[in-house]
Amino acid sequence: MVALDTAATRIDFPFAEQAARLTRCIDSRRKPAEQIETEYLITSRPAAQMSAEQMLRQDRRYWGIETGLHLRLDVIAGEDRSRVRHRTAVMNLVVIRRAVVTIAVAWIRRQPNRRLASMSGFYDFMSAASSKMAFRLVTASKYIRLSRL
User: Fold this and answer.
1) Rounded to the nearest 5°, which phi and psi values hold at 80?
2) What is the number of other CB atoms lying within 10 angstroms of the CB of residue 118?
3) Backbone phi, then psi, for 27, in 5-degree steps?
């Protein structure tokens, strides 16, 4: 990470005190770094309040949140594809999706089978459990109706 000379008027951000250029390689265990990404960080805090290391830590924290909760909500729960526009309905769905993700994460942490310890595994488990419960409910209601005759 390289600190840049910053003047708020020069970079067109009214309250900017400092900026930095962050260059990172994107890689994983399966494939080596193929892509180099450059990101610019801007903050309104002066260098006395936030060092370059603290800026880097905040950037990593942001991406940790983005790849944690937001990825689960966007990709698995389909939050970005939602067509709901009514304010109350949107808020209700937000609460329900976050509650489901919270329950799923707790289930994943307790899952002994690592292959099933994923959001997809959680949804499959819940679907199977719901099917069993629905079947029990349907068969129980038939039994109750027959016994009343």
Assistant:
1) -70, -25
2) 14
3) -145, 170
* C-alpha span between 105 and 32 (Å, rounded): 29
Cα radius of gyration (the chain): 24
Q: Which residue's entry shows tokens 């951000």?
A: 13
Read off the tokens for 108.
């994943």
Q: Which two tokens stand for residue 43?
A: 């903050």
- Helix ranges (H only) for the chain are 8-11, 52-65, 71, 87-110, 119-148
- Nearest 5°: CA angle at 117, between 66 and 121? 95
Compute φ and ψ for 37, nearest 5 degrees. -120, 135
Partners of residue 20 on adjacent β-strands: 3, 41
Under 8 Å between Cβ of 107 and 122: yes
Separation between Cα atoms, residue 33 and residue 139, nearest integer Å: 56
Burial degree of 42 (CB within 10 A; 0-12, 13-18, 19+): middle
List pLDDT tens digits, range 57-86.
888 887 776 667 777 777 766 777 788 889
- Is this prediction's pTM over 0.70? no
**DSSP one-letter code for 70:** I
